[in-house]
Design brief:
Among the domains are: 1-67, no CATH class; 265-432, Glycosyltransferase. It is 50% helix and 3% strand. It is built from 17 helices and four strands. Helix 1 crosses helix 3, helix 9 packs across helix 10 (257-263) and helix 9 packs across helix 11 (268-283). Keywords: Lyase, Signal.
């Protein structure tokens, strides 16, 4: 006997119809009509991703929607690799932070270079000078930065893979990684960033270094929300430990000098600061605070950053202007998605000069799709860096972005948008 298509499946088909072909939608409808009944899962209380959309997409994965097979296979490939990597800890680094406490996170400024040979009298080769956009590989000698990135990626991939496949091993490994970095007293990181992106012989830490976390920490907030729906290996003690860490970290962001310095930044650093703070507020139950942060961003970020034509002048001045334009858009579009959770429509806000977030995404479309050259400074142009930003604007209703989706290049590792529909930094550079 054939089963009836459930309202959740119908809603999912409507939701993704704009990015799937008619034949794929028809295939999904057939699979949903003939396939096994689905056991409903709780809708995850995500802060950036749309939890309801994730639940609907999970249904489509389970009934075998063909268009999801390729991204699911790529996600599983990445998650399988993460099963045997890590776990990571700030205790792994050989250096002691200035506090003499290895539990404190430590990193070095990526674009600052020594000017002298290292000697016994001058082991760092000071003084240091800045080379914008040119990453100093010596910063990787301090392992916190690289391990933090590996841990963030692993937890997100593992959690999403568990959510869509139900494979307990993925969830159990994600729980171990989170527990090791944030909860276990022997290996946990202190909930502060006092010693990020320091510059030898100049400063032990800077507010600008908060971006080490803010560019991707919101992925972990959503991963925890997914695990909270009933993941094997994820305990109530793990959940309580993460909640405590998040509250303490949010308090540090609201009271420390480094955080105050970063919040005052007018370029992508300020955007990422707001995104992280708003997401943490929402994740810890402070909805009013989250709404206030997003609302303030209309004047504090969009008014300052977006020109009438949609360009981002503060990012165009960089030696890697396309990277930093798309990077800032990751923060702004994710902030707009947080706004959707708290009733603030950042997408349609117009600055006094007529700039909008839609226009800002549209500005990078011609270069991203190969229709026009990028005419601003760029040391390493990578068109795929804009893919997720354009997906986000397309989903939010931007016609130019919707028309561009079919012309976008495929990022390394495949286009995973249908499974994790929130912008990520897709090009490999990482810095200030």
């Amino acid at each position: 006997m054939k089963r009836r298509t459930t309202p959740r499946i119908i809603a999912a088909l409507v939701l993704v119809a704009g990015v799937l072909t008619p034949s794929a939608v028809a295939s999904a409808a057939t699979a949903a009509h003939q396939g096994p009944a689905l056991r409903p899962l709780p809708v995850p209380a995500t802060v950036v991703l749309d939890g309801y959309r994730l639940a609907l997409t999970r249904d489509l994965v389970r009934v075998g929607l063909p268009s999801l097979n390729a991204p699911l296979a790529e996600l599983r490939t990445q998650a399988d690799a993460a099963l045997t990597a890590g776990p990571w800890s700030v205790m792994d680094k050989p250096e002691l932070p200035p506090s003499n406490d290895k539990h404190d996170y430590l990193s070095q400024a990526p674009y600052w270079w020594p000017t002298q040979p290292a000697t016994a009298a001058n082991p760092w080769g000071c003084p240091y000078v800045q080379r914008d956009g040119v990453r100093n590989p010596a910063i990787d000698d301090i392992t916190d930065h690289a391990e933090r990135g590996e841990m963030f990626n692993a937890v997100y991939d593992l959690t999403l893979a568990w959510y869509y496949t139900g494979d307990a091993a993925y969830a159990q490994r994600a729980a171990l990684d989170l527990r090791t970095w944030f909860v276990d007293p022997a290996t946990r990181m202190n909930p502060s960033l006092d010693f990020t992106q320091g510059i030898p012989c100049m400063v032990t830490g800077r507010g600008i270094g908060i971006i080490d976390f803010s560019q991707q920490f919101t992925d972990l907030l959503d991963a925890v929300a997914l695990l909270d729906t009933g993941a094997p290996g994820w305990s109530s003690a793990d959940r309580a430990g993460m909640t405590t860490w998040n509250k303490q970290f949010l308090s540090w962001l609201q009271t420390s000098k480094n955080a105050s310095d970063e919040a005052a930044s007018t370029n992508n650093h300020g955007s990422f600061f707001d995104m992280q703070e708003a997401a943490l507020a929402l994740a810890t139950g402070q909805r009013t605070l989250a709404r206030s942060i997003v609302t303030t961003a209309e004047t504090q970020r969009l008014n300052v950053q977006i020109a009438a034509d949609g360009s981002l002048p503060l990012e165009l001045s960089r030696t890697r202007s396309f990277h930093y334009s798309t990077f800032d858009l990751v923060a702004l579009t994710r902030l707009a998605m947080i706004g959707q959770h708290v009733g603030v429509d950042l997408w349609h806000y117009s600055t006094p000069g007529g700039g909008t977030l839609f226009k800002a995404v549209d500005f990078v479309v011609p270069a991203a799709t190969g229709q026009a050259a990028w005419t601003y400074p760029e040391l390493q142009f990578q068109a795929f860096a804009a893919v997720d930003d354009i997906h986000a604007a397309a989903d939010a209703g931007d016609r130019t972005a919707r028309a561009a989706v079919a012309k976008l290049p495929t990022p390394p590792g495949g286009d995973l948008w249908l499974l994790r529909p929130a912008p990520e930094q897709l090009d490999p550079i990482s810095g200030s």
